[in-house]
Amino acid sequence: MSRLASPLCVAILAVFILPAHSFYLPGVNAVNYADGDELEVKVNKITSTKTQLPFDYYHLPFCKPDSIEYDAENLGSVLQADRASNSLYKMDMRKPKQCQVVCRKELEAGDLQGFSDRISEEYRVNMMLDYLPLATPRLREEGEPPRLVKTYQMGYSLGQMGGDDLPSSMPESAYLNNHLSFTVLYHEDSDFEGARVVGFEVEAISVQHKYEGEWNDAKPPAISTCDTSKTGGSVPFGMHVPMSVTPKEGDEGKTEKREVIFTYDVQWRPSPIQWASRWDLYLLMEDDQIHWFSIINSLMIVLFLTGMVAMIMMRTLNNDLRRYEQLETSDEAQEESGWKIVHGDVFRPPSYGGFLSVLVGTGTQLVAMTLLTLVVALLGVLSPANRGALLNAFVGIFVVMSGAGGYTSARMYKSFQLTAWKTNAIWTALFFPTISFFVFFVLDIIVWAEQSVAAVPFTTIIALWAIWFGVSLPLVLAGSFFGYRRDAVEPPVRVNKIPRQIPTQLWYMHTIPTLLMGGILPFGAVFIELFFILSSIWLHQFYYVFGFLFVVFVILVITCAEISIVLVYFQLCVENYHWWWRAFGSAASSSFYLFLYCIFYFVTKMEIVKPVAAILFFGYMTIFSVAFALMTGTIGLFAALIFVRKIYGAVKID
After folding, report:
1. C-alpha closest to that of 523 among 594, 609, 424
2. From the CB of residue 145, how many other CB atoms can be counted at a distance below 10 Å?
3. For FRET with 217, which of 157, 352, 437, 515 sits at 20 to 30 Å CA-CA?
């Protein structure tokens, strides 16, 4: 027993508390700072929406401390390539700084080319202060009459290409933002001593610094481009020559070294923003009015359609039941037709029933994971300050729900009168994780070849394997054991020994047309919200409107159930009793439209400059589409199963 318990405990620890030093979650609890207290600025990865390849901050030749120390990471932050480390930027609470020198670097050709390439690919630099991400403030108009609303864009631009927007610049040349003007917002209150950080803003400027005499690292000379008597500490925008990092060939064919001086200012500004509300500006989404209108519009349309479908189904079924009751007392009983005539075949086990039970078990696990994660998010447990918390929750809850997946799969497997439940349990445990891990591993190799920080370390892959085989697989086996021990679910009517011949079907009742029709409505319930989800993943925007997402998930469940019931009913009315796979596929086909929408999003919204970004996008969207198909198909099958049992249990069968 101890040999089994050890890897199980290790794997559970790897999911939830790897690593953890106490019950304190950084960034979740408020920290009060007295005047002069030192605040540490953390640097994070640099990111670009054009390449989708994040790099470590020190991948570029920025100013480095003597020893680079990375923060402790959980599994979610590692998978997200969210690695924070120390930096040379120093701040003291409410102590302004003016043109503080970070360091002076002499960049060679390779260093210059590295900066130039990343600037042309529109990379942004990410930092943190008090676990609050650095942001560039922007103003946008909204409402009637128009008013300016402050929003945040994550990080700051590494630099920009020369053009009319940058004075004294040359076209096709890259200019590095080497001066950062920080503004730290703080809040004071009588309820606590000191001050709390509630905002971390930056203005990034490119300036070719000038100074007189020789440079001394121990005591840097006065920088004339930072004349505090004229500028108050901030470099005046547009009154200087920007810092070019585009390599130029010298007279002897060698690229000369170029001097770059990194500087920063720090300003402190009181703010009425409460500490509990300091994330509001970060979570304020673009086009939020359109977001509200679209969600409400989608909700009303889907509720109207599902209401109409439910009303039609109830009236039609009531008429059918009354007609069949009348036929039972007349000589016309021998001429019965429609869905009742296939009562002896409707509960006949489907072809490949074992594989269907595997899909349904995995789908149950995914539905439970999604529902519980949304509930946890709605309760406010998943703070955006706790990096990787959302992905951690997904992985942890998916593993814990393995038992539910195994139980459901075994119950359905036994109802199909199959006996190899152990093989079925192993397939349930391995099917979706194997597909996901294979795609993930291939993409990880591609990212590793690009030397991106997004490449998951080998130790983390080992931890994932330990979680998979040490926790998930045993839970699936345990769930399957208890599920198969239960008595099989008996159908309400007897199954005939000889299958009934299915009459010729009209073209629109064939499998492909039915599946194409069935997937439209579930996809229509989610495609608007899908846009915001994709934007948060691929355009590096925050997504924390879990209330909306929960409503959309409920709409999706109702829609999948309704469409599966309707299509199965129509299928039974034309005496086609092969409904098991049709019920699953009619809702699961919405993933086909989802993947088509991903292609549309890629073409219209993504500005990709490297083929590897396209591979990453479609690789991960394939996993997402497969998971979506398993979830929606499971919902549709269970709804249809309940419906079929109800209607055949309500009629008298001789």
Report:
1. 594
2. 5
3. 157
DSSP category for residue 177: -
Tell whether the torsion through CA atoms of 592, 597, 602 and 606 is positive or negative: negative
Torsion 273-277-282-283 (CA) sign: negative
- Please say whether the beta carbons of 405 and 428 come within 8 A: yes
- Beta carbons of 153 and 134 less than 8 angstroms apart: no
Residue 69's Cβ-count burial label (10 Å; 0-12, 13-18, 19+) is exposed
Residue position matching structure tokens 């599946």: 515
Q: Cα(265)–Cα(226) distance, rounded to whole angstroms?
A: 10
Please, which residues have CB within 8 angstroms of residue 431's CB and are 6 or more apart in sequence?
358, 359, 362
Digit-coded pLDDT (tens) for 606-617: 988 889 999 999
Mode of pairing for the β-strands spanning 124-129 and 132-133: antiparallel
Pair of tokens at residue 72? 């402790």
Q: What are the φ/ψ torsions at residue 230 (nearest 5 degrees)?
A: -105, -30
Buried b (16+ CB within 10 A) or exposed e, 176-215: bbbbbbbbbbbbeeeeeeebbbbbbbbbbbbbbbebeeee
- CA dist 444 and 455 (Å) reads 5
Query: Of 643, 577, 573, which is closest to residue 320 (Cα–Cα)?
Result: 573
pLDDT digits (tens, 9 = 90+) for 530-589: 888 898 889 887 777 788 888 889 889 988 998 898 898 888 888 888 899 999 999 999
Whole-angstrom Cα distance, residue 433 to residue 431?
Answer: 6
Q: Whole-angstrom Cα distance, residue 155 to residue 84? A: 14
Radius of gyration for the chain, computed over Cα atoms and rounded to the nearest angstrom: 31
User: Looking at this protein, which amino acid is placed at residue 595?
Assistant: F
What's the CA gap between 22 and 10, in Å, rounded?
17
Q: Identify residue 632 by its one-letter amino acid code.
A: T
**In the chain, pLDDT over 90 holds for what percent of residues?**
47
Q: Is 251 exposed, middle or buried (0-12, 13-18, 19+ CB in 10 A)?
A: exposed
C-alpha span between 179 and 182 (Å, rounded)? 10
